C-alpha cells in the first residue's frame, strides 16, 4: 500500500481531538516545518539513533507533515516506514511530501489514534523493529496509553525512541514561562511524568531504558529497548 492510500484505523479516532488537531493545523501545516525547526530540537539526533536493521520496519506515531519519515527513509534506504496521525490535514501534507521525494513505495500512512491502534488492520504489520514519537506525546490526551501501545507493537529486540519537551529545569524561569505560554497556544503541554512512565513501562516489560536530557532540560530523549 502506498503513501497515497490512507486506510481508516481499527475503530474511529476520537472525534473531538481529531477535529481539534485538524483545526490547529489546517493552515499551520503549510509553514509547520519552516517554523518548528527552530524549537523542536533533538529530532535529527533521534533519527540518527534509530539504527534500523536492514529490511527493518519503522513506525512513527504522530507523523505530522512527514518531515521525520522522509529524513529517516533517506538515512535507512533498506527499511520500510509507516506513519500514523490523527489529523487528516497533516496526513494530506505528509502524503504530498513523501510523493515528492519518490518514497511512496516504501512509506505507508494511516489515520488513527496513537493511544489505541491496530497495526495489523492499518498496515498489515503486527510488530515493528523501531517505533518513534517526536514531539507528539506533549499533544496527545492520555499520552501514557501511547507509550504502552507502542511498546506492545515492538518486535523482540525492537526499540521505542521518544523526543519531546523536557521541563527546562536548567534554563531561566522567564524562558520556561515564555515557552509554556507559547506552547499552550498550540495545545502542547510538556509531560513532567514522561521519565517515570517510561521507567515503569520498561520495568513491567523487562525492557531497558536510556534517558537523556538535552540542551539544559529543553528536551528529553529516551530509548526503550525490548529484550530479545
From TrEMBL:
Domain Methyltransferase: from-to ranges: 58-158
Keywords: Transferase
GO MF term list: transferase activity
InterPro entries the record matches: CFA/CMAS (IPR050723), Methyltransf_25 (IPR041698), SAM-dependent_MTases_sf (IPR029063)
CDD domains: AdoMet_MTases (cd02440)
PANTHER family hit by this protein: CYCLOPROPANE-FATTY-ACYL-PHOSPHOLIPID SYNTHASE (PTHR43667), FATTY ACID C-METHYL TRANSFERASE (PTHR43667:SF2)
Protein name as it appears in the record: S-adenosylmethionine-diacylgycerolhomoserine-N-methlytransferase
Transferase among keywords: yes
Superkingdom of source: Bacteria
Pfam families membership: Methyltransf_25
